[in-house]
Amino acid sequence: MKNILSAGYYPALGTPLDEQGNVIASSLSLHVEDQLNGNAAGLLVMGSMGMQAQIKNSEYARTAQIASDAVKAAQSACPVMVGVMDNSIGRVAERIDSLKGMALSGVVATTPFYFALTQTEVRAFFERIASKSPFPVYMYDLPGITKTKIEAATAIELMKHPNIAGIKTGDLALARVLQREKFQHAPNFSVLFSGLDVFDAAYGYGLTSQLDGMFSCTTAINKRLYESLASEDMEAASSSLDDIITLRNTFVSVGVFGGFSYAMNSLGFEGNFAPDYAPRLTAAQEEQVQSCMRSLKLI
C-alpha cells in the first residue's frame, strides 16, 4: 500500500562498525534516537551513506533490525526504509526476504550497478521486485554509480505499479516532472529529492520530502532548516542549508567518508562510519573537520 511520505528531512543514516566489520548496536541506536529528537520525517538505513554495498552479509539484516527496534523503543511512528541494492532480481529478493517481519515502511533499490541496463530492463527489474516484495518499493536514481539513469518516461510507467511507492533522485528536472505527473497517474507516489545544494529552491517547487546523508551529522541544523522552510522564512532556510553545505565541502576536501566518520565520532557516536579501505584522517585533517564543526556550533 502506498502511503505518501510527509514533508521534512530524511537522513541516510551512517552505519557504525567495529574493527571486525560488525555493526555497533548501541551506537546505531543512539544515532536513530538523535535523529528522532531532531524531528526527522523518516530514516533510510543502509543507503549510500550507510554503506549498504560494504556491509557484511552476516550483518545486513541485523543492522536493519537494530534501527527498526530503536524506533519502536522510542515509541515513534517515524518511517524506516532499508536499502536492498544489488545486481539481480534474485539477489535483491534475498535481501528483502531477510527483512521479513520487521516494522519497515519500505525498501530502497538502485538499478543493478555492475552492468548498465536498457530502460526496458529497468522497468522489468523494478516491476518484478515490487511484485515479490512484502514492503513498498522505492526506486533510487543514482546513475553516477549505477551507470543507468531511471528516465522520466520509465518512472512514470513504474509509478503506476501498486507496490512502487516512490523514487529518490538528485535530478531536479526529473523530480519536478514526476511531482507533476504523479497527480494524474499515482497521487500517493512520493518523490524524495536528494539534491542537497538546491534543497531550499526545490522545497518551493513542492519537493518537500528531502533525503541526504549529511543530515546524519547535522541534526541541530536540520531542525532549524525545516522549521524555516515550513514557515517560508527562506533567508533563514538558505543560511542553514549553507551551513550543511559548508560541512559537506569540508568532507570533500579531506575525503567524504573519512570526514563523515570523524564527525560522527566527534558527536559521540562510536565506530567506523567509513568503508574498511578508506584511510583515516591525518591530524591536520581532523582539525579541519573539528574547526568547521565548532564554527557551525555542532560541537
Core attributes:
single chain, alpha/beta, TIM Barrel, two-stranded parallel ribbon, 12 helices, 8 strands, lyase, DapA-like, N-acetylneuraminate lyase activity
Indicate the topology:
Elements: E1 8-11, H1 25-37, E2 43-45, H2 57-73, E3 80-83, H3 89-98, E4 106-110, H4 119-132, E5 137-141, H5 143-146, H6 152-158, E6 164-169, H7 172-185, E7 190-193, H8 199-204, E8 209-212, H9 219-230, H10 234-254, H11 256-266, H12 283-295
Parallel strand pairs: 1-8, 2-3, 3-4, 4-5, 5-6, 6-7
Helix pairs in contact: 1-2, 4-6, 9-10, 10-11, 10-12, 11-12
| Cα-based radius of gyration, to the nearest Å | 18 Å
Sequence of secondary-structure elements: EHEHEHEHEHHEHEHEHHHH
Our count of domains comes out at 1
CATH topology: TIM Barrel
- CATH first level: Alpha Beta
What is the overall silhouette?
globular
List low-pLDDT spans: none
Distance between the termini: 41 Å
Mean pLDDT: 98
Main sheet properties: 6 strands, parallel
Number of strands: 8
GO molecular function: N-acetylneuraminate lyase activity
Family: Belongs to the DapA family.
Keywords: Lyase
InterPro entries: Aldolase_TIM, DapA-like
Please explain how this structure is put together.
This protein is globular. It is of the alpha/beta class and 299 residues long. The chain has helices at 25-37, 57-73, 89-98, 119-132, 143-146, 152-158, 172-185, 199-204, 219-230, 234-254, 256-266, 283-295; strands at 8-11, 43-45, 80-83, 106-110, 137-141, 164-169, 190-193, 209-212. The mean pLDDT is 98. Helix 4 (119-132) links the parallel strand 4 and strand 5 (137-141). It contains 12 helices and 8 strands. The strands form 2 sheets. Strands 2-3-4-5-6-7 form a 6-stranded parallel β-sheet. Strands 1-8 form a two-stranded parallel ribbon. The chain is 47% helix and 12% strand. It has one domain (8-229): TIM Barrel. This is Dihydrodipicolinate synthase family protein. It holds the Pfam family DHDPS.
